[in-house]
Specification:
single chain, alpha+beta, hpI Integrase, Chain A, five-stranded antiparallel beta sheet, three-stranded antiparallel beta sheet, 16 helices, 8% strand, disordered N terminus
């Protein structure tokens, strides 16, 4: 509840305006002494989401001043709805107000029927209800981001006309997105009906019969690179290992002004991990004594938060002592345990958008791009997104070095079903494999080691037998 001063019972003092939650929405409640028809409670248009109290406080102070100055009186002793709407507009608010009768906003001992919540208010209530069951990224990016923006745009274009909203959404958004929005709106209204906040479900059945497989001619933004593991074994989606070395040479060259990305890009080529996983790597994840790296979190660039890995596992990647990966990490100035390995020039986690612009070029900043320049030089055949360093590692390990696909999957976790089924069985074995030498060479080394061990064992038995004979 937000108001200027209260009695010990929690109610506003006589003559005070309160802006508070009432019947599931935030309303401005004017004192009974102000209107001889009863207490006025009227919608404010403030959404019931985190941080609403600050906006409610501002509106309350303004309404109190207006009330004391007599500016909310229409000159005939009645509440001036027009002036109230002007105030809401000044604060960027919009509420569904019934101008035809003051009884719609007056409350006395015999309350008139409460007006239904607005569509946005119902959505805000639903989001608050669902928040604990959703991941933070889904809640922020989808429910409070993409879905809410689509709802508000349709309201601006169509108004609160459910069927027309449905048709407008289908014309402007993908069918799966619209189906999800309408399904959630229907759930929201069902919840609001149970709470006696609205009288009917305006979106009941609206999501039915929407074909989510319908192909539509939509404009694709080429600058938005999609991170997908569906084709990690497609060699056409990977750079050759020689091309990978040319890319690293270009980045390492001081004259190209992108050298600060060298550590991150090379790490991605040597491990095949996802970009967000590499950015989320902390020094505490490097286990030098055990010669391995733990990949246990992901970084969301848009929300600036850390979350669990895609399949909610902790992966172990081998890092043989004095190997290429070991030496790469040793060359980075070591920081505190919970400090990121890979940073930008400002000392903050690498920004994915900035990395992509450096990778493919950005005309605004006259950045020619790493890959376009190498294509001009004839050192790289085609453009592939930065994410495809992952494809390059996987195909290099399997097709060039002959590594078992199950081992590579354990390192990179590119198959969710296979990873969850076999992860524990082969994870320990996988960390004993050196990813920097071919599998047949490693097998030969293992065989030679076994022979030496066997020879040593026989020598020990012979020595023990000689000692007994003496």
């Amino acid at each position: 509840m937000t108001n200027s001063s209260k009695t010990p019972t929690g109610k506003s003092k006589k003559g005070q305006v309160a802006v508070r939650v009432d019947s599931g929405s935030i309303k401005a409640c004017f004192p009974r002494s102000y209107c001889n028809k009863g207490q006025i409670k009227i919608a404010t248009g403030i959404s019931l989401v985190d941080g609403w109290e600050s906006k409610a406080n501002q509106l309350q102070r303004r309404l109190q001043i207006e009330l004391e100055d007599g500016k909310l009186d229409d000159g005939q002793g009645n509440f001036d709805l027009g002036r109230y709407q002007e105030i809401l507009k000044e604060y960027g608010l919009k509420a569904s107000l019934r101008k035809t009768s003051l009884s719609a906003v007056v409350s006395d001992d015999q309350l008139p029927p409460k007006p239904d919540l607005s569509l946005v208010e119902v959505w805000d209530m639903y989001c608050s209800f669902r928040r604990e069951s959703l991941s933070e990224t889904v809640y922020q990016l989808k429910f409070r981001g993409e879905y809410l923006r689509a709802i508000k745009k349709s309201l601006d274009e169509i108004g609160e006309h459910p069927l027309e909203m449905r048709n407008w959404l289908l014309k402007n958004y993908s069918h799966p997105t619209v189906k999800r929005i309408l399904s959630c709106l229907s759930e929201a209204y069902r919840l609001a009906i149970k709470q006696k906040m609205v009288s009917q479900n305006l979106f009941d059945g609206m999501a039915e019969d929407i074909n989510t497989k319908t192909k539509r001619n939509r404009i694709i933004d080429q600058s938005k690179e999609i991170e997908s593991d569906d084709d990690v074994l497609d060699k056409s989606k990977a750079y050759t290992w020689d091309e990978a070395q040319e890319i690293l040479k270009y980045i390492q060259d001081d004259s190209n002004r992108v050298k600060h990305y060298y550590y991150l890009i090379k790490f991605k080529f040597l491990t095949g991990c996802r970009t967000g996983e590499a950015i989320a790597l902390w020094w505490t994840d490097i286990e030098w004594e055990r010669e391995r790296i733990l990949l246990r979190r992901n970084y969301n660039n848009r929300l600036k938060i850390y979350k669990s890995t895609k399949n909610d596992t902790i992966r172990m990647f081998p890092m043989p002592k004095d190997g290429e990966l070991w030496n790469l990490l040793k060359s980075i100035p070591q920081g505190e345990p919970n400090e990121n390995l890979f940073k930008n020039k400002a000392g903050k986690p690498v920004n994915v958008d900035s990395l992509q612009r450096v990778w493919h070029g950005y005309e605004v900043s006259r950045n020619k791009g790493i890959i376009p320049e190498l294509i001009k030089q004839g050192k790289v055949k085609k453009y592939l997104p930065c994410y495809n360093t992952r494809h390059t590692f996987i195909t290099h390990q399997i097709f060039d070095l002959g590594r078992d696909a199950a081992i590579v999957n354990t390192w990179c976790e590119h198959s969710e079903e296979m990873s969850k089924k076999h992860y524990r069985d082969i994870a320990k074995y996988a960390t004993q494999i050196n990813p920097e030498i071919p599998a047949n060479q490693q097998a030969q080394q293992q065989t030679e080691l076994d022979l030496l061990k066997e020879e040593f064992r026989k020598q020990q038995e012979l020595i023990e037998q000689l000692l007994k004979d003496k």
